[in-house]
Amino acid sequence: MLAGFYTISSGLLANQKKLDVIGTNLVNSQTPGFRAERPVASTFGEALAIRRESVRSGTIGTPVTSIKNVETLFDSGNLKPTERSLDFAINGWGYFNVQAEGGENIVLTRNGQFDIDSEGYLILPGVGRVLGDAGPLLVESDDFEIKPDGSLVSGEGKNLGSLKISAPAEDVVLEKLESGMYRLPDGADAADQESGILQGWLELSNVDYNRELTRLIEAQRAFQSCSTALQIADDINQKAAAQIASL
To answer: Backbone dihedral region of 35: left (phi > 0), alpha (psi from -120 to 50 degrees) or beta?
Structure first.
């Protein structure tokens, strides 16, 4: 019976993790630039294959399912017109660079819902100042136009700089932070990227709400099934113990 407890418990833990990931996706479905996540399960068969490949011996354990890791889906979200001059969207590959508060860390994001701070710098609220090719972008007011190549020109025709758009290499896995923010892993670089910039547009999250709701129902039912199975196994174990005690 103990083997049954381990198997059922692994199902409970795996489906709880799925529920957590799906919940995060649904909560951030309206967060500009957010990228959905998918839990990747590891099966007993996979564990067995890895053990054989590494020529290790010993008992692996009972057949279980576990969440190996959580992967981020980096496909683009839909673009939405806002008619707000401080909203930008990248029409292509790449990320905005934002100097996190404190000035030391640089984060990458597809969220272009910018604003202007008290000193006239372009900022991503709650994160930090938006970077251009020569440092933080000083725009002073929202009276400016951004060209498709990312260059900013004030209403008086003054050049305000260019947005810094970075594209990590294909083999670089970005470290996910909160609310659609990412960071390059230590030692990784990102090249400057020429992408079309749209002013007055926002890129929405790539969360498919209907798909997430379907996955939520599946995970909830699987979790409930494991809970029921655990209760049944516990009842059988108690009856077996009672019979042994009566002998």
So the answer is: beta
How far is it, in rounded angstroms, from Cα 124 to Cα 61? 49
* pLDDT tens figures, 91-134: 888 899 998 876 668 889 999 999 999 999 999 998 889 998 88
Please, are residues 175 and 184 in contact by the beta-carbon 8 Å criterion?
Answer: yes
Say which DSSP state 243 is in: H
Tally of residues, the chain:
247
Q: Is the pTM of this model over 0.85?
A: no
Distance CA 65, CA 7 (A): 8
User: For residue 172, what are the contacts with CB-CB under 8 A and spacing of at least 6?
Assistant: 184, 185, 188, 190
Phi-psi region of 219 (alpha: psi -120 to 50; beta: other; left: phi over 0): alpha
Residue type, 2: L
Residue, of 246 and 158, whose pLDDT is higher: 158
Coil/strand/helix, residue 232: helix
Write the DSSP assignment of 5-32 as a string of letters: HHHHHHHHHHHHHHHHHHHHHHHTTTST
